[in-house]
Design brief:
By secondary structure, the protein is of the alpha+beta class. The protein contains three helices and five strands, in the order E-E-H-E-E-H-E-H. The protein has a three-stranded antiparallel sheet. The chain has a two-stranded antiparallel ribbon with strand order 3-4.
Length: 117
């Protein structure tokens, strides 16, 4: 499986990668949008407006050429690319949350061990 750092997505004539390091502002922007997604039986669905989808994609995708992108540019995204982008994004988020959880467990165990020495 390709990593999100190297997997590119072509939208219009431009290439994008998943933004795996969202800023606080970007996270705050997409939280209300993510809450509208539902996940059942390995299916992702959402009832979103085009504006919400464009806002979502403008936060989670970054252009390879690093040139600015208008939010409405993402109206050009095709269905298959949408499926791929959402799948990779959410899988990346799940992996990130697992890593954080493992780190916290490890830190808690280390702090308990440290106190016994």
């Amino acid at each position: 499986m390709e990593t999100t750092e190297t997997k590119t997505y072509k939208i219009g004539e431009r290439e994008f990668v998943i933004n795996s390091d969202l800023t606080l502002r970007q996270r705050q922007t997409i939280i209300p949008i993510i809450k509208k997604f539902s996940f059942e039986n390995a299916t992702i669905s959402a009832n979103l407006t085009m504006e919400e989808l464009c806002e979502f994609y403008s936060a989670i995708l970054k252009p390879v050429d690093e040139k600015p992108v208008e939010k409405n540019f993402f109206e050009l995204i095709d269905e298959w690319t949408e499926i791929e982008v959402c799948s990779f994004f959410f899988l990346n988020r799940v992996e990130l949350l697992k890593n954080i959880q493992n780190f916290l467990k490890s830190s808690t165990q280390n702090s308990k061990t440290f106190g016994k020495e």
